[in-house]
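User: Hey, quick favor. My workstation is busy. Could you predict this chain's structure for me?
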Amino acid sequence: MPQDTANKNLCKNTQDAQTFLVTPTKGMAYIHATATKMTVCIDNAQHPLIIDSGAHCSIVSRNYLDNHFLNLEKQLLPTKAKSFKSASGKMTSIGTIIKEIIMPHSKGNIRLNPEFVVLDDAHIQGFLLGTDYQRMYGIDIYNSKNRHITVCTNKEKKFSLDIYQVSTHHPLEELLN
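Assistant: No problem, here it is.
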């Protein structure tokens, strides 16, 4: 249940949060950044999937699809929005595509059927699952010591995340390339 923030004593009785990692040197916390990334099966092949809680929709780049899938044009569905905004600027949509994703797990795989906006000028290498389908499938991200996600509120089936350290020089560019 959400906390009542209208209380006048809101900031009393406060304690420090426990850290799971070594506290970084001041001004250097960004070097500990890791992407929420895992390897999934799409069309019987392994592909990277970034689970991005800051993205409002799921995307994939046209370049990635052209390099890994055949008959892209036949699979495209029309989209009303022709441009999308991102941290790196405006990107152009050429349509949407539905791809069946298999999340492998030793206790039984889980299948998702998300729709991805195909962006002509995106530089992401793999698929990016945005909050549109994270909410639909009840995907929860756990950033504790053993980083993992759960799907459909099944807390017993934990999906491990790939260890993927973001570059210290260009963190956002490294994540997208």
